[in-house]
Amino acid sequence: MDEPFMRRALELAQRGEGYVEPNPLVGAVIVRDGQVVGEGAHECFGGPHAEILALRQAGELARGATLYVTLEPCCHWGKTPPCTQAILHAGIRRVVAAIVDPFPEVSGKGLAELRQAGVVVEVGLLACEARELNAPYLKRLTRGRPWIIAKWAMSWDGKIATATGQSKWLSGEESRTLARQWRGKVDAVLVGVGTVLQDDPHLGPPADSPRLPQRIILDTHLRIPVESQLVRTARQIPVLIFHGPAASESKRQALVSAGCECVAVSLQQGRVSPAAVLDELGRRLVTKVLVEGGGAVLGSFFDIGEVDEVRVFLAPLLVGGQQAPTPLAGRGIEHLAAAWRLRLCSSQRIGSDILVIGKPAKADSAFPSESLATKPI
Fold first, then answer.
1. Residues in Cβ contact with 84 at an 8 Å cutoff, skipping those fewer than 6 apart
2. Which residues are part of the catalytic machinery?
3. Angle of helix 83-90 relative to helix 109-116, nearest 10 degrees?
4. Is the pTM of this model over 0.85?
């Protein structure tokens, strides 16, 4: 009888996507005598945790009940008080948690506190689904780097532009609208300076989005024009530019004066090192990054094995041309045996396009046990 209640908790947890990061997505359900008496989801950063909301709804009916929660309850003071104390005060008899929270201030301590107080604790129900739900949070905690979503639109013959560089518009309006909505659910949107010079994008989300993601540009020599849309709107939506150590100091000062943040990082083969960028973003507690291209940038993240999710719009066009660009440049692979194998997560029609979402097989592997997190949340 436990599984349906945990599935409901997982469903509730999804409400927080785009609102709670860098915190995890958490849902909670309280059941007494086979009936749901309280539900809750962590719905905004700094707001009440899922367990607290479920306990408030249940009231006195929580005494002697079972709590189903998608992640181990916290046992420390962060933005909010410890959930474990509230659970004990409410008289919960049994706690079923999907997975342990790897955050150092919790990491098994919350469950141990409940056990020591006499609460029956069980862990592991729908653990795979719970890990999938919070994969970005788990990656940032265990590897110190954000979850990378690679997104592009291409023709059926695999081209992202014509040989002359024309790319507006491969995908339909419905696809472009959906892609803008994705921006509002991530911490950052990332492109290379080539995309800025070619398209002068804005990269902002819709006005009603849950998040205002920072816009990240990889620009080794600071070629981004001061009059570009990104720079002109930097005081409204943050712009973070990663550049090489030898970039022009006068250009850097001009960009900073316009409201941009410029950060020098090491180079890899003459370009901004994607590994250095990811390490810096991890230190800043960035959880999810939408990489929108172009091919050189997308290829560089694949080359270092740091793509966690792929979202591709297939437009019903044939472009052709040996010189027409494809989505992934970089070094690539020499043998097919080394190719990235993807598991298909979903596919659907979006207007006249087909959206395919997949995850590399490596994303299925277990997360390492060590934690690189340094700041309590």
1. 73, 74, 75, 110, 113, 114
2. 51
3. 20
4. yes
